[in-house]
Amino acid sequence: MPHTQKDAAFLPGDPSFTLMGTPAGDTRPAMISHHRRRAIPIMTEILEVTALRPAPGLTPEDFVAANADINEYLKRQPGFRWRRIVLRGDGTILDIVSYDSIKHARSGAAGITGEMGGSPVHEAIDHSSVDWQFTTVLQHVE
Asked: What does the buried/exposed string (b/e) look like for 46-68 if buried means 16 or more CB atoms within 10 Å of the residue's CB?
């Protein structure tokens, strides 16, 4: 699906960059640097980031195991790129899912509680601990 300026709505407010059109055939939005006067393509990446704790009596490993069906669901979703589940030193789990647009991220997330509402993962979460949000990647270095 082509990226649109709406998909890139979460760009930083840096006044040295402006959204602009791209050359014919390139459907990605771009920013133009006012310092260098050249187009910089925008690679939209939206992260769904959820911080949570396992349900009482369960371990982080139990949470990961309860996600088997969710992993398969995510692989079928348009725009899905990757998923990481990480453990912080304080025992909080960060569940990070990458999508190519906010539209796909919202759709994928809605299915976790909709289509996948019966998943065992929902019983593996202390719901009072959940902090869930969409974020936009500002820089990606490989």
From this structure: bbbebebbbbeebebeebbebbe
Helix (H) or strand (E) holding 107: helix 102-113
Distances (CA, A) of 85 to 4, 7, 118: 29, 25, 20
User: Residues in the chain, how many?
Assistant: 142
pLDDT tens figures, 38-86: 555 556 899 999 999 999 999 999 999 999 999 999 999 999 999 999 9
CB 7 within 8 A of CB 44: yes
φ, ψ for residue 4 (rounded to 5)?
A: -120, 170
The Cβ of residue 12 has, within 10 Å, a number of other Cβ atoms equal to 10
- At 37 the three-state DSSP class reads coil
